[in-house]
């Protein structure tokens, strides 16, 4: 028996891995500009950093993340072409929060068995989303873990690097009294809170492959709506002549929900009341809350409820920034104003994830 046969008998098929690479190669190569050297398949991705010499004082920004239990939905209906965009949204859109332009990304897929078409669908989705955000996909790894993962199980993660001028970093230190907070619309659940989603469905006896009148289709299909990509439109606002300098901080509304993520990008001592009446949460959130017998308000610490990003903007150009982002295809609207006046903040959420930030609470009722 050859060593290759022994490895295959153990559950690792290196030939299947090679086929997967061939299937994804063109999509990955399409993300490569002249800065990427060596093509697909090397031990390490190479990126020509001489392009950074045009920066006066460049800072590198990096982020890493995964998709979480949303993957269970893709596995339930054997549809894997959207998960890649979810990964890029979770990773690359965190980089633009500090004002950075993404440069390159790598991905990692662990699976019980390499199914070439499935792996290629995932990576093609990653590559297409990388292209949409101006990010080079310079490398990745697919690893079979037979015996540790079931044959059709997989998980995916990624990491990305970007660059920003040191004097252009966005953050709480730029925020001022009177700044306007703009909400930027989400495309749905994005990739957060799916453990709660799956719990709600399981408790109600609803299968992921079932049709739901409340949700308006096959459950997994509706819930697999990919994460919206914000990097390109936000960079246009940050770099565009009429709006450059208007944005003081950005928040990506991911794990932790609405108030906590906004509080992270406000300075200590500041506060804001976010007006729920300024938007109507999409059907998917209303349907899930109805199935659970709960209120929308009870899920504000888990789901984005229709707000994927916040932008904290100088008051004089807030309307212009909102108009610009809306014109780029993502509805954007004001939800409140930052204040530093003395206030009892006991009922506010203050800071999050180790950040001693500002104070946020949601007030009023959602629009119908």
UniProtKB/TrEMBL annotation:
<dbReference type="Pfam" id="PF00586">
    <property type="entry name" value="AIRS"/>
</dbReference>
<keyword id="KW-0547">Nucleotide-binding</keyword>
<dbReference type="InterPro" id="IPR010918">
    <property type="entry name" value="PurM-like_C_dom"/>
</dbReference>
<dbReference type="InterPro" id="IPR036921">
    <property type="entry name" value="PurM-like_N_sf"/>
</dbReference>
<dbReference type="InterPro" id="IPR016188">
    <property type="entry name" value="PurM-like_N"/>
</dbReference>
<keyword id="KW-0067">ATP-binding</keyword>
<comment type="similarity">
    <text>Belongs to the AIR synthase family.</text>
</comment>
<dbReference type="InterPro" id="IPR036676">
    <property type="entry name" value="PurM-like_C_sf"/>
</dbReference>
<dbReference type="GO" id="GO:0006189">
    <property type="term" value="P:'de novo' IMP biosynthetic process"/>
</dbReference>
<dbReference type="GO" id="GO:0005829">
    <property type="term" value="C:cytosol"/>
</dbReference>
<comment type="pathway">
    <text>Purine metabolism; IMP biosynthesis via de novo pathway; 5-amino-1-(5-phospho-D-ribosyl)imidazole from N(2)-formyl-N(1)-(5-phospho-D-ribosyl)glycinamide: step 2/2.</text>
</comment>
<dbReference type="InterPro" id="IPR004733">
    <property type="entry name" value="PurM_cligase"/>
</dbReference>
<keyword id="KW-0963">Cytoplasm</keyword>
<dbReference type="GO" id="GO:0004637">
    <property type="term" value="F:phosphoribosylamine-glycine ligase activity"/>
</dbReference>
<keyword id="KW-0658">Purine biosynthesis</keyword>
<dbReference type="GO" id="GO:0004641">
    <property type="term" value="F:phosphoribosylformylglycinamidine cyclo-ligase activity"/>
</dbReference>
<feature type="domain" description="PurM-like N-terminal">
    <location>
        <begin position="58"/>
        <end position="164"/>
    </location>
</feature>
<keyword id="KW-0436">Ligase</keyword>
<dbReference type="GO" id="GO:0005524">
    <property type="term" value="F:ATP binding"/>
</dbReference>
<dbReference type="GO" id="GO:0046084">
    <property type="term" value="P:adenine biosynthetic process"/>
</dbReference>
<protein>
    <recommendedName>
        <fullName>Phosphoribosylformylglycinamidine cyclo-ligase</fullName>
        <ecNumber>6.3.3.1</ecNumber>
    </recommendedName>
</protein>
<feature type="domain" description="PurM-like C-terminal">
    <location>
        <begin position="176"/>
        <end position="342"/>
    </location>
</feature>
<dbReference type="Pfam" id="PF02769">
    <property type="entry name" value="AIRS_C"/>
</dbReference>
